[in-house]
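Quick one, C-alpha cells below. Sequence please?
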C-alpha cells in the first residue's frame, strides 16, 4: 500500500529546526544600532519528558522525540505548547501512539495543521516510521539515525557507520515508501568517506540539505545539492568533536552544531569558513548536547543521559541567539 505525503517541510532536527514566530532573546533592545542581548541558557520545565532524542519546532511549539527506559525501547512524539513550554505535552497525533528504538524526528511544517496523516516521520532502529490512520507504521527495515523532510516532497534519512551497518544518506521521492530509497553520493572526485559518518540532517537556505559528520580529518558539515543529490564538504575545523545535532538560523544564515564530545555548541558562519565555540560546559547548562532546534531567535538544546551534573541530564535547554550577521 502506498501512502501519499502531504506538502511538507522540516525544521530537523533533528533534524534540526527552522526559523518561526518564536520570541527573540532578552535585553533592553537599546537604541540606535545596539543589538539586544541574547537570553542566557535556561532549563525548560518540560513535564513527562524522559529521554529527549530529537527536537523540532513548528508554529510556535516544540516537538520532542522522547524515549523511555534505559534501553530506550519505546518512544513518543510530544508537543509542548509555546511560548512557555511548561504545560503537560500532547502526544502526536495521539498519546497512545508509540514506536521502538527511535532516534530522529521530522514533522510537516508546510501543512495547515498536524491533524492529518503522513506528516510525522521518525527514524528508528527498525526503519522509517510515518504516521498513518492506524498508527505509526515502519517502512523498510534498515537502521536510520536521522530523518529530514524536504519541501520538494522528499524524505531524506541517514545513519552513521557506527550504528552497525554501512553509513550514508538516502532519499525517498514522492512519498513512495514501498520503493527502495536512492543513495546520495559525493560529488565526483571528492572522497566519499564522510558519507559513512553522517549523524544529523538539517535544511538550510535555498532548500539545500546539510549534514553533520563525525570525524576524522576535521570535517564537520556536508552540503547536499537537492538537484543533483551530490554532497560536498561545507565546513572543516579541528573543533568538530562528535557533532550530533544541527540547526540553521535563517535570520543570520549561521549554523549551530551540538558538539557532544566537546560539551559545546559550535557556531558556523553562513559560508562555512569560520567555526567558533558559541556555548560550552556546565556553566552554559550543556552536557553532551545531542539535538538542536531553532524557533525564531531561540535555540533549543537536548542534553544526553550521561551528565556529571544530574540536574542537566535529559534536559532541554533554551537560549537566545545573536541577531546581527
Amino acid at each position: 500500500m502506498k501512502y501519499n505525503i502531504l506538502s511538507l517541510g522540516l525544521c530537523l532536527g533533528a533534524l534540526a529546526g527552522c526559523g518561526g514566530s518564536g520570541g527573540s532573546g532578552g535585553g533592553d533592545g537599546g537604541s540606535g544600532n545596539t543589538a539586544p542581548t541574547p537570553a542566557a541558557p535556561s532549563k525548560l520545565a518540560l513535564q513527562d519528558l524522559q529521554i529527549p532524542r530529537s527536537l523540532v519546532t513548528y508554529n510556535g511549539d516544540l516537538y520532542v522525540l522522547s524515549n523511555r527506559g534505559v534501553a530506550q525501547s519505546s518512544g513518543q512524539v510530544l508537543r509542548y505548547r509555546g511560548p512557555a513550554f511548561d504545560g503537560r505535552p500532547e502526544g502526536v497525533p495521539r498519546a497512545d501512539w508509540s514506536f521502538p528504538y527511535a532516534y530522529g524526528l521530522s514533522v510537516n511544517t508546510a501543512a495547515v495543521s498536524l491533524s492529518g496523516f503522513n506528516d510525522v516521520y521518525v527514524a528508528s532502529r527498525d526503519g522509517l516510521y510515518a504516521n498513518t490512520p492506524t498508527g505509526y507504521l515502519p517502512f523498510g527495515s534498515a537502521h536510520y539515525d536521522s530523518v529530514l523532510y524536504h519541501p520538494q516532497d522528499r524524505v531524506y534519512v541517514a545513519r552513521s557507520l557506527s550504528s552497525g551497518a554501512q553509513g550514508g544518506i538516502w532519499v525517498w521521492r514522492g512519498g513512495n515508501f514501498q520503493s527502495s530509497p536512492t543513495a546520495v553520493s559525493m560529488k565526483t572526485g571528492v572522497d566519499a568517506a564522510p558519507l559513512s559518518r553522517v549523524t544529523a540532517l538539517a535544511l538550510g537556505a535555498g532548500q539545500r540539505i546539510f549534514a553533520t559528520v563525525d570525524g576524522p580529518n576535521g570535517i564537520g558539515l556536508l552540503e547536499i545539492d537537492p538537484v543533483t543529490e551530490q554532497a560536498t564538504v561545507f565546513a572543516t575545523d579541528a573543533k568538530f568533536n562528535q557533532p550530533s545535532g544541527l540547526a540553521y538560523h535563517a535570520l543570520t544564515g549561521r549554523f549551530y552544531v551540538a558538539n557532544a564530545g566537546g560539551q559545546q555548541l559550535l557556531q558556523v558562519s553562513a559560508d562555512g569558513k569560520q567555526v567558533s565555540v558559541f556555548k560550552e560546559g556546565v556553566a552554559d547548562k550543556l552536557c553532551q548536547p545531542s539535538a538542536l532546534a531553532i524557533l525564531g531567535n531561540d535555540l533549543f538544546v537536548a542534553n544526553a543521559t550521561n551528565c556529571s551534573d544530574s540536574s542537566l541530564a535529559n534536559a532541554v535547554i533554551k537560549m537566545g541567539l545573536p541577531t546581527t550577521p
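Residues 42-320 form a domain with the Neuraminidase fold (CATH 2.120.10.30). The chain is about 0% helix and 40% strand.
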